[in-house]
Amino acid sequence: MESQRGSPFEFLTQFIHGKTRSKMTALKNPNIEIINPDIIRGNIQFAIFDFDGTISLIREGWQQIMIPMMVEVLMETPDHESLAVVEQVVRTYVANTTGKQTIYQMIRLVEEIQKRGGTALEPLEYKTATMTF
Q1: pLDDT for 31-84, tens place per residue?
Q2: CA nearest neighbour of 109 among 17, 44, 125, 54
Q3: Which of 73, 76, 88, 97 lies at a C-alpha separation of 20 to 30 Å from 16?
Q4: What is the reported pTM?
Q5: At a CB cut-off of 8 Å and minimum separation 6, what does 8 contact?
Q6: pLDDT tens digits, residue range 29-39?
């Protein structure tokens, strides 16, 4: 859907890179922001809700962080396979869970640790650790 600014994707890209002239205006609720106060409310034609970052340009490359971390954790388990096998296992389950919230990948990581005789942390602890990279 085109507007005076171009496509929604083009606007989002420009916004992320700071190339829009719109000013962010905070409402009384600090969790809601009006990006462009000049838009007449009630006439919105599209919106993007990216609760987990699946389509976010900012998250590009997350697999290059997640996969090595998960492989490293699994290689520390007592009954791990070869590096090549562990990498393939991780790549497969990351591909199968792409688009889901990160916590589901961490739940799967815990299951894989346990399969290999390891003692796993809680899934949320692994998720929190990935946020620090």
Answers
A1: 667 777 787 777 667 776 666 555 554 456 778 888 999 999 999 999 999 999
A2: 125
A3: 97
A4: 0.57
A5: 1, 46, 48
A6: 566 677 777 87
Helix axes 83-97 and 102-115, enclosed angle (nearest 10)? 150
- 1 in Cβ contact with 45 (< 8 Å): yes
Q: Which residues touch 112 (CB under 8 Å, ≥6 apart)? A: 70, 74, 89, 90, 93
Residue by residue, DSSP assigns 36-54 as: -TTSPTT--------TT-T
Backbone φ/ψ region at 15: left (φ over 0), alpha (ψ -120 to 50), beta: alpha
Q: Where are the domains of the chain?
A: 1-48, 59-130
Give the DSSP H/E element, type plus range, for residue 26. strand 25-26
State which H helix or E strand residue 33 sits in.
strand 33-34
